[in-house]
Amino acid sequence: MNVDSPSVSQRDEQRLLHVSRDELLDHQSRRLRNIVSWAYERVPYYRGMFQEHGIGPQDIRDIEDLTKLPLLTKDAFRATYPFGLFAVPQSQLTRIHASSGTTGKPTVVGYTAEDLSTWANLMARSLTVAGARRGDTVQIAFNYGLFTGGLGAHYGAEAAGCVVVPASTGNTDRQVDLILDLGPKVILCTPSYLRVLLTAMAARGITKEQCSLKVAVLGAEQWSENFRNRIITDFPYNITPVNIYGLSEIMGPGVACENGETLDGLTLWEDHFLAEIIDPKTLRPVPSGELGELVITCLTKEALPIVRYRTGDLTRLLPPTWSTFQRIDRISGRADDMFIVRGLNIFPSTIEEIICQFPELGTDYQIHLSRPMHLDEMELHCESSYPLASATSTNDIADRLTKLVQMKTGVSSKVKICAPGILANLGGSKVKRIFDSRMGKI
Amino acid sequence: MNVDSPSVSQRDEQRLLHVSRDELLDHQSRRLRNIVSWAYERVPYYRGMFQEHGIGPQDIRDIEDLTKLPLLTKDAFRATYPFGLFAVPQSQLTRIHASSGTTGKPTVVGYTAEDLSTWANLMARSLTVAGARRGDTVQIAFNYGLFTGGLGAHYGAEAAGCVVVPASTGNTDRQVDLILDLGPKVILCTPSYLRVLLTAMAARGITKEQCSLKVAVLGAEQWSENFRNRIITDFPYNITPVNIYGLSEIMGPGVACENGETLDGLTLWEDHFLAEIIDPKTLRPVPSGELGELVITCLTKEALPIVRYRTGDLTRLLPPTWSTFQRIDRISGRADDMFIVRGLNIFPSTIEEIICQFPELGTDYQIHLSRPMHLDEMELHCESSYPLASATSTNDIADRLTKLVQMKTGVSSKVKICAPGILANLGGSKVKRIFDSRMGKI
């Protein structure tokens, strides 16, 4: 339902993806002026913030003026819980989502009918760019409910004219049955859950010919280029893993998505989102192309205007390739996921990149941090890909891994290798990688 | 999105609900002719069935001719799994749902965009009749995913112009937080889960003034009039429990719904569904107003035409009251839920009606059937509503319950009364009432 006529929308989309940068910048500036006024006039919290910084809508003429505006953090959601950042009364919303809120109250977000339509169209654009086509069957194995993954993907797949199988999470055997019986070409899930599914399929002896899947659109968890390579080399299927990005404060899945043919980073839908990369400590812009924290401004969100939101995600901005839009690199960590061991900054993604280089190891892992004797200790738990022949081979792999981790991070770690499947993320929800039992946790 | 202009759609709906019976019959006959041709021409399984009965589309002129057509059972889904009953190619579907398939393969159903639009509109009509209004917040605590409850309710609430909180099932504490923080007027869930929620709310000391809920739309489980009374008397809230009916083979939730003001049985949306009541043994129509198995013909379903489907649900057909449409009585059992103890037919609903008459008992219960010594034994497990003062009072309640069950069913049973909350359905999914450990089970 609510699917635009394919010919019209596809033509519009094609044009839009290839407008000139100048046209895009004009468009962005116009939308930025609108949204800043919208936020200022309708949300007392923004008005207060802007006034504190001695700035008003009249000071924002084009996107060059963006940095004059103050940054917004997750604290703003907590301070105004549940509806204080909203620009429309609750009765004008069509849907409310909420993040899980690991500590205290959840982060509540809301959408007008227009916002949901924008979201569905951007998610449809993402799926199309990833490789889905009208009439393709799409199995959605993200969780449905308050989490934006399931319903966000669902509405997008519908808007793309696909046949949606709303499998939701869990029940791996049944997911495999659905793949065999309904023949989906595309699946959406977390990267760790894709691996669980493919492992189950391989264990059931399912051949490449029996597997209809061609594209896996992976999100809601950070993953590495080596993880992608491992999906391709470890399983006898012909599935292209494609990266998608989103977060509920901004919209949900479909903020940026990788092109399934070029696989060269995530194209950011710049007609709706402005991106900046800042140094998370100085809050200043980093030099072009360098790693830093992603800050997003939503140009079109009605219900919950978002101006300069610190996403907490670390990435870099990359120039356009196949379309007019700039790209972001895969998320290489979260500002708050970074952990410090003996004074050295480490991202889980660095550890993952290293582990994935070992074909003898699976891609699931845990990082255990402790401080038994005043000094931090790091222990990595990995799985072997297959039962290892001897204690000698286990020790050999552990030694090589320890050396590589020492070389890349500067930290000496212990390594524990366990049997295949022990650490797998069976639930399909976000996976926990870091187990920090240190007091203080610097 | 895809919400019709409220003025137009509401006016149309009002007119439709009050057309004359004659106009409705004409409309039904026209649609019946169409759908029978559609099924015959596009689905070889139907063509084969019809031909076996020596009947063709030309024999169906009006709804009087309906009984000439053969009955369809769930076996047809199994025999044609997964897509053999479909009238359109898979690529023309918009969504696929599947029932859980407790034994073997699930029952796969599919919808075109038009089917989904019909479903959303009928579910919106149901919610409106139940008491929801444009701009009201609606919390949906049915499971989202392949089960039709969550997504069916979701699209309906959106089409009704409501603000949807897609809470899905589980996490009762969080559900209560959402009720307190987001102020929903309407909740949709299973009757047993509503009781769990209200019990949790009462335990947290939440007052009537703090509880925004006014209407609970309850489905996916059979429940009794006494259960409704107990919801009203046991909790200090002012919530009207309203009955809704649906099943995935027919559409999903919203096939019939009770009027929240008259509370006099479920109005069946006869512009889209034809109902018959048959004797499940003789397969003949039962006399008007008598209990039997509900058979439904869908007048408008494109993707998966349904002609004379035996739902397995036992109910009776009731004349129209507040609208032109006939009503069905609350489902009083399933043809296959009925169990036989010492040669006597018993429905769980009969037991539930009796238990709910005891204010000292909760509404959760289990029926345990065994055959320790060649003879069937029935034991009822109930919960007390509050910790009971003495063994004497426990024995007294058990005695009275045993006598009442003997009187109403003819079977003498043992009764075990346990502490409050032991038997509660915490998961929010379908509750299990019967535990039958007999061999053979007849």
Structure, explained:
The structure is a homodimer of 442-residue chains. With 442 residues, chain A is of the alpha/beta class. Chain A folds into 2 domains: 1-331, ANL, N-terminal domain (Rossmann fold); 339-436, 2-Layer Sandwich (GMP Synthetase, Chain A, domain 3), CATH 3.30.300.30. Helix content of chain A is 32%, strand content 23%. Chain A contains 11 helices and 21 strands. The first copy, chain A, has helices spanning 6-17, 21-42, 44-52, 74-79, 113-130, 148-159, 172-182, 191-203, 225-234, 348-355, 391-409; strands at 95-98, 108-111, 137-140, 163-165, 186-189, 215-218, 240-247, 252-258, 266-268, 273-278, 292-298, 309-315, 317-318, 327-328, 333-334, 339-341, 344-346, 361-370, 377-384, 413-418, 434-436. In chain A, the strands form 5 sheets. The first copy, chain A, has a 9-stranded mixed sheet, sandwiched between helices. The first copy, chain A, has a 4-stranded antiparallel sheet with strand order 10-11-12-15. A 4-stranded mixed sheet of chain A has the order 20-19-18-21, covered by helices on one side. The longest helix of chain A is centred in the N-terminal third of the chain and has 22 residues, at 21-42. Mean pLDDT of chain A is 92; it is low at 1-6. Chains A and B meet through strand 1, helix 5, helix 6, strand 4 and helix 7 of A and strand 1, helix 5, helix 6, strand 4 and helix 7 of B. Chains A, B: This is Phenylacetate-coenzyme A ligase.
